[in-house]
Amino acid sequence: MRFSRISKALGVAAVVAMGITACSGGGSGSTDTNAGSGNTSKVVNAYGGEPQNPLLPANTNEVFGGRVMDMIYSGLVSYDASGKTVNELADSIKTTDSQNYTIKIKPGEKFSDGSPVTAKNFVDAWNFGALSTNAQLNSYFFESIDGYKDVSAMSADGKTAAPTAQTMSGLAVVDDTTFTVKLSQPESDFPLRLGYTAFYPMTEAAIADPKASGEKPVSTGPYMLKTWTHNSSIELVPNPNYTGPRKPKNAGITFKVYTTADAAYSDLLSNNLDVLDGIPAASLKSFQSDLGDRSIIKPYAGNATLTIPSYLPAFQGEAGKLRRQAISKSIDRELIIDKIFNKTKEIAKDFTAPVLEGYSDSIPGSDVLKFDATAAKKLWDQANAITPWDDSTFTIAYNVDGAGNKEYVDAATNEIKNALGIKAEGKPYATFKELRNDVNKKQLTGASRAGWQADYPSLYNFLGPLYGTGAGSNDGDYSNPAFDAKLKEGLSAKSTDEGNKIFNQAQEILFKDLPVIPLWYQEQTGGWSNNVTGVDFGWNGVPLYQNITGK
Amino acid sequence: MLRFIIRRVLQVIPVFIGSTLLVYFLVFSMSGSPIDALSGGKPISPAVVAQLTAQYHLDQPFIAQYGIFIKNLFTFNLGPSFSGQPIASIIARAFPVTARLAVMALAIEAIFGVTAGVIAGLRKGKLFDGTVLLASLVVIAIPTFVLGFLLQFVVGVKLEWAKPTVSSGANWGDLILPAVVLGLVSFAYVLRLTRTSILENMNADYVRTATAKGLSRPRVVMVHILRNSLIPVVTFLGADLGGLMGGAIVTEGIFNVPGVGNTLYRAVLSGEGPMVVSIVSILVLVFVLANLLVDLLYAWLDPRIRYA
Fold first, then answer.
1. How far apart are CA B36 and CA B24, in angstroms?
2. Which residue ranges does the record assign to the Solute-binding protein family domain (chain A) (predicted)?
3. More confident residue, A343 or A4
């Protein structure tokens, strides 16, 4: 059995993009956009799962809760299908130094219960999310804001949460529609993050009673929650107070809760389910012929890598660098994608993902990702000349509860074995959490499969949290001052474009050190029923539900 | 009789404590903190980890955690799951669904199994006997998940006679297909058990006596042969009910039934000790009660059995 939650769990629930297509310009105000392209009275049955956490902005960090949150909420900005930020509730987000931001929200915006959206709703919601005693899983998203240290402080013995302040000093309400944000250091990509789930506003009542709000949120998005029947379905209906760019073109979305994508696929084939994202592994070979023009394969902002921790003795110093390069060159990514994933991945050419602004497929040094068994063996021998390999087995750790993991890890270890003439094998873990336990405690004895799904569309999101010294998801303990300096330089750049250039220079350093070995970019597979039309996926691989109409 | 029932009910106590302790310990010993599953591999602030750890008593030793669970159990307040919903209401939603599924499966295997078994037994060596024996062999040989996927694909997707998965209400009609899959394997066993038992009893002295007395054939079959042949079948069905209540994880997964099996599977993956043990405790109770019921049925079926 396969659980999407687990296989996708590496990604935080990403933000559903908004689809502004050329023909839907009539958005706000008019209910009958582009007449003729579909039946807008259709309620769409979509693939979903039981949200792991209550539906609170700062507590939703997985895909199934995330897709609901992103439909019922809108934040200051949202992301369009290509991942560009578009103002949603924000009127303007201004800064001169990338550290102090003045945010104005549109006047007259309302929550689904009719109460006005004010600057205070944002500031209070962010303070609620950041305060450690509220135990919100996304609280680290606020760590850039000045004063986060105080609300997330630990007691002297380091065992209990002991915040020294209840609110962050960096947030201040100016008037009903204006607030200011002071970061603890310049970060040019801060405005890009504001479409992420954690940054949604909350009503005063919700903050006073988060438990009730998590069950039935009052929200700001294109839809609002009608009913949530636990473990079975979540019904959303259009929110009449929504005026933003993601105006629904259907009469609602019903997320059906599945425990396996296989069951959902059977429902899709018999038109009992309208939209499925993530075709189950067993049907990857046949889904295109089963569904014909009702199928889709689309790249999204995610990738897969192999982490080789720098704390492993054999992978340190110059020899370690050569060994990592050798392993990278001994994996025939193309063959694995063809044979195991049925061409539903794209070969990696950098450490980020191709749907992002500023992405480059020709960063100097990216040759190291090209398969070349002879060159790999040469590099390995060079490493052995420095410090000989102790003839131990090279392992790649993986969790068996994620579909396809075993197959590709076995293939990769076989290729490594053949190219380098060493012993290599997969090291299975029964569950994702057991694998994470060893990863977090830095107890890996070999490489480990890894991957990243973007929280928000930005190159930095693929670099800073993963390879910055001491960063939260730096599983391999990578540290290079030159790389850190480049990241800092990129963050304080004046524009995103300029910042992206510097981030790509930072990647050149990564290509030399190879803290992880990039394997491939993720592509989302999906399909839809005979009952609907207008299905497309956003930058994060989640369907653009609001654009789906009946036939 | 009453003493027998009391004794059996008292036996539940050590069984209950032993099994919950064991299961709780197994979940407790799983490596990896449930918080790792919650965070999904994303960074999580140490202060939040500390807060969650304290909230769910994850920092306590095993015996303390188990003690808290037992205390909660007896105060009828199982606390919230990691998803923030009360465990009691999650269980209250899942059990009726699985109970419906189990009852239907049990009915299918009992009615069809016994009927076919009786006919096959009475006509030993005939075409019907041969056919059902062969068919039951095939059913026993095929793993449940193959049968499940096959029926789902043929009946649900190709023929469209039924929905391939269970809808959110999980009403009786929706559950027919999964109940058939669930009941099929046991159906084969029930059939074979009944058939063998009938064959044995057909040659018994009291049957010959009954026939010699001039009783009609239907009466001989129904009252003298069948009733005496049902003891092993009832034992099997009783044990099966317990199994059906908790062991339908595969079938519930295939047909997306929002029942106990699915809930249990999810709870195990996320390492939620209290949830797993709460479900298992109820399963233990169901098992014990089903067995008690079977024992009482013996006396009714065979008056020679007495309880002291």
1. 19
2. 85-473
3. A343
